[in-house]
Specification:
It catalyses: UDP-N-acetyl-alpha-D-mannosamine + N-acetyl-alpha-D-glucosaminyl-di-trans,octa-cis-undecaprenyl diphosphate = N-acetyl-beta-D-mannosaminyl-(1->4)-N-acetyl-alpha-D-glucosaminyl di-trans,octa-cis-undecaprenyl diphosphate + UDP + H(+). Keywords: Cell wall biogenesis/degradation, Glycosyltransferase, Teichoic acid biosynthesis, Transferase. Pathway: Cell wall biogenesis; teichoic acid biosynthesis. By secondary structure, the chain is an alpha/beta fold. It is built from 13 helices and eight strands. The strands form two sheets. The protein has a six-stranded parallel sheet, sandwiched between helices. The chain has a two-stranded antiparallel ribbon with strand order 1-2. Strand 1 and strand 2 form a beta hairpin.
Length: 246
C-alpha cells in the first residue's frame, strides 16, 4: 500500500498520530544513524514550496512529512486518498515527551523567547521527569552566535531536537546544520513551546474536533490573518489546478 499522498508534489505520510510516534521511536531507539528530519506541513508550507527551491529540496530529503492542517486533510480527501487525521507538530511533540518519559529520551529546546524557553523546560521537568532536557537556547541569537549554538547542540547529542523559530526557517536551519547537530530526530514545532509554557492557549478540544483550530488561533491572534489568506489560494489550486501535480 502506498504510504504517502502527494499534495502539489509534497508527499504526506498516511500514518496516523499513534503510528507516527511509533515510527519516530524506532528512529530514536537506534544506537546511531543519520539525523531524521521530520516536517509538519500545512497549506502555507505547500504553497511556499512551489516557489522555494531550497524548501523543495529539504522536503524531498526529509524522513517524513505530516499533515499539520485541516486543509491538507481536505485536499487528500478531494483527491480520493483520504488521511485518517491531522498529525500536528504539537501532538507529535507531546507524544514524544510521553514516550520519552518512559524510555529516558533526551531533548534540546531551540527557539522562542528566553522566558518561554525556560518555562517550557520547567514544565517538561515537572510533567515528564523521565525526559532529560540536555540543553536549551532561545531563538534570539545573531549570525555570529550561530556556530556556538550548533556546537552546543552537537556536544549535547540530544535524541530529539525541537526548533521553534517559525516555518520554513526552522526546517531550513535544521537542514543546513544536520550533519553537525548530532541529534537522532529533529523537527520544527512552530509555537508549541508557547503552548507548553502556558503563554498561548491551544484551542479547546471541541474546536479541535470540529477542525476549527485555525479559526480559534486567528480569533486569538488577529495578526495571523495575512498568513491565513493563503488558504483560499491553496483551495483553488487543489480544486482547479490539479493537487497531485507539482
Amino acid at each position: 500500500m502506498q504510504q504517502t499522498v502527494s499534495i502539489m508534489g509534497v508527499p504526506f505520510s498516511k500514518l496516523n498520530l499513534q503510528q507516527t510516534i511509533k515510527k519516530l521511536t524506532v528512529q530514536l531507539d537506534k544506537q546511531e544513524g543519520k539525523l531524521f528530519q521530520l516536517i509538519t506541513a500545512n497549506p502555507e508550507i505547500v504553497m511556499v514550496a512551489k516557489q522555494d527551491e531550497l524548501l523543495r529540496t529539504i522536503i524531498s530529503q526529509s524522513g517524513m512529512i505530516t499533515a499539520d492542517g485541516i486543509g491538507i486533510v481536505l485536499a487528500a480527501k478531494w483527491q480520493g486518498e483520504p488521511l485518517e487525521e491531522r498529525v500536528t507538530g504539537f501532538d507529535i511533540f507531546t507524544g514524544l515527551l510521553k514516550a520519552g518519559n518512559e524510555k529516558g529520551y533526551s531533548i534540546f529546546l531551540l527557539g522562542a523567547d528566553e522566558e518561554t524557553s525556560r518555562k517550557a523546560s520547567e514544565v517538561i521537568a515537572e510533567q515528564y521527569p523521565g525526559v532529560r532536557v540536555v540543553g536549551r537556547q532561545n531563538g534570539f541569537f545573531g549570525k555570529e552566535e550561530e556556530a556556538g549554538v550548533v556546537a552546543s547542540i552537537g556536544a549535547a547529542k540530544p535524541d530529539i531536537l525541537v526548533v521553534a523559530m517559525g516555518a520554513p526557517y526552522s526546517e531550513k536551519w535544521i537542514y543546513k546544520y544536520k550533519k553537525d547537530l548530532k541529534a537522532k530526530v529533529a523537527f520544527g514545532i512552530g509555537g508549541s513551546l508557547d503552548v507548553l509554557a502556558g503563554k498561548v492557549k491551544r484551542a479547546p478540544v471541541a474546536w479541535q474536533k470540529l477542525n476549527l483550530e485555525w479559526l480559534y488561533r486567528l480569533l486569538s491572534q488577529p495578526s495571523r490573518l495575512r498568513r491565513q489568506l493563503v488558504l483560499p489560494r491553496f483551495a483553488l489550486k487543489i480544486l482547479f489546478g490539479g493537487g497531485k501535480s507539482k
